[in-house]
Structures are given as C-alpha cells and as structure tokens.
Amino acid sequence: MHDLDATVRRTLDELYPSLDAVPQRWEELVAEAWLDQHRGRPTRRVVALAAAAVALISLAAIVPTTLLPDKRLGVSEAAAVVLKRTATLAAAQSPTTPGRYRYQKVRVLEAGIALVVPEPHTALFPRTRETWVASDGSGRTREITGDPIFPSPRDRERWLAANGAWEPERVSDERFGPRNDLTDAASLPRETDRLEQTLFAEAKTKDPPLSAAMLGTISDLLASPAASPELRAALYRVLAKVDGVELAGSMTDSLGRHGLAISAPGGYSNAAVDRRDLVIFDPETGTVLEHRTVLVQPVEWTGATPPTTIGEMTYVESGWVDSIDERPTSS
After folding, report:
1. What tens digit of pLDDT does each residue of 217-253 get?
2. pLDDT digits (tens, 9 = 90+) for 60-102
3. Do 234 and 112 share a structural domain?
4. Do 29 and 166 fall into the same domain?
5. Could you tell me the pTM of the whole model?
6. d(CA 270, CA 211)
7. In terms of domains, do 24 and 172 share one?
8. Rg of the chain on CA atoms, in Å
9. 218: which of 11, 140, 160, 166 lies 20 to 30 Å off by Cα?
10. Residue at 327 is within a domain
11. Which contacts qualify for 142-148: CB closer than 8 Å, 24 or more apart?
C-alpha cells in the first residue's frame, strides 16, 4: 500500500505543483481514468493518471477505502462520477419487450446463522432460484438447493453436531396469488428526488445502516425486468447520492463476468459494521451482475477469517415470457 501511495503521489506531483490544488478533482480523475481504460480509449486529459488510478482502484477492491492512509485519496466522489455516467448510459439502452410475466433466474448463496449458545455457527446454502411474476404480483418461484458450504472448519463441526443428518429441502416449487410490493419497479416514480424519498422511506423499515439497505433495494430494482431504462437511470442517480457508497474497483462475479463494483458498510446496527455490501455492475450498460456481502470484521456467529464472502445474489438471466412454465429463448 505504501509503494502504491507513493506512486500515486509522484504522478500527481508531476502534473500539479501542489496536491492541495486538486483535492476533489483527483477523485473525478480516478473515476474517469478507470472508465477510459475499461473502454480502451484513454483520453489525453487522463492518460497520465490512468496507470496510477487503475492501480489504486484495484487495491480498493481488496482493502476498504476507509483503511486507505490518506482520506484525500478516498473514492466516494469517484463513485458519484461513475454512477452518474452509468445513469446516462442506462437511459440510452433499448427497453425490453414486455410479456405477461417477468422472469428472473438468480444464483443465491444465503447464510444460515444459528445463534446457539455457547456455540453459534453458520452455513452457506447455494440455491438456484427462478421466478415468474405477473403485473398483479401473482406468479411462481422454483428453487433448487445444494449442499451447505461452511465458512470455516469450526462452523462445519458445530453445524453437524447441532443438526445431525439434517438435510435442506432440495427442490421447491411454489405458485402464489396476487400480492402488493411497495417497491415494485413498474410502479416507482422516475423523477430522482421522488424516487429517493420513496426508497429512503422503505430503507428505514429495514436493518441499518441505511446505506446498505438502500444499496440492496436499488440493486434488486436495477436487476428487475420491469425496470425501464428511465427508471434504471434514476436509480443510479439516487445511488450516487447515498452516504457511505464508495467505489470498490474492478471485480469479477461468481460467473466470471467482469464489471465495476461499489460498496457500502453493512451490519445489523449503525454501531457494529462488520461487513460490506458490494454491487458489481456493467458500467457500459448499467446491468447489475451480482450483489455480494463480505465479512470484514471477526464475529461470534462464524469462525471465518475476514475478508470472507458470506452472501451472494448473482443475476444470471432476466426477461419477459407469456406463461409460468416458459423461459426466455436464450435459456
């Protein structure tokens, strides 16, 4: 980290007589440098900073930005620049052709936490989930669950001792009637301020920190087939205003797809932030690839050593179909 910091400072010193001359502009240059490198078209204005900027962001993908040695190199402003630009690109995407049901296929890694005194433990359950949802909220959910994955040997020993030969339900297939979803993508406002107020009110009903709740809700909505290009653009503009959201750098999701990640502090209270929630997305289209939760502090309920992934929602495919037995033609 020290060598990288020195490289960044030398690059800045060559371009500017004083670092204080560009306290905020540097963060914008970091974001622009990443985007230009990603597209393979570095502009003259940022080419001299590109290598150092990409190196800094690559480090940020591993080390939370709050741990960087100099707060002036924080990337919250860079996140805002990237998200606003992504909003513009998302708005330019072609709308999908609607059908009767919006279909979505996701791969889930869900934590099962057993707060058993004196030996709490955790297992991670991999699931493939398909959903079909009509405009009135009715539809179908089909889910296949795999064998539990244990974050540490301690978790495995405690889980097996407590649960014996317990087996999860391997396949479930549920059909449900109409239901009301307050954050359904089709019914949300497209105007940024009104959308922000709606999502903020919803986030306040969930576990804090608010930034993690906002990030989770917005990533779900961005991945919905019912989200129009205009709504996706507004969602990215709202995300660019959420306190605590930072640029986490270039990342690869669990399917091997490359994207850019943003992150926010997560946990069950504002005082005990023991994880970070990340969203990996394609900055060229605004398509959300994955929502990942990473443990960054030791906790009692797992023996995992941070940083460890303790949850994932990988968006495999989405689209519109005309029946609850149908999948998009690309499936």
Report:
1. 899 999 988 888 999 999 999 998 888 888 888 889 9
2. 333 333 333 333 323 467 788 888 889 999 998 888 777 789 9
3. yes
4. no
5. 0.76
6. 10
7. no
8. 21
9. 140
10. no
11. 142/171, 142/172, 142/173, 142/174, 143/171, 143/172, 143/173, 144/170, 144/171, 145/169, 145/170, 145/171, 145/172, 148/112, 148/123, 148/124
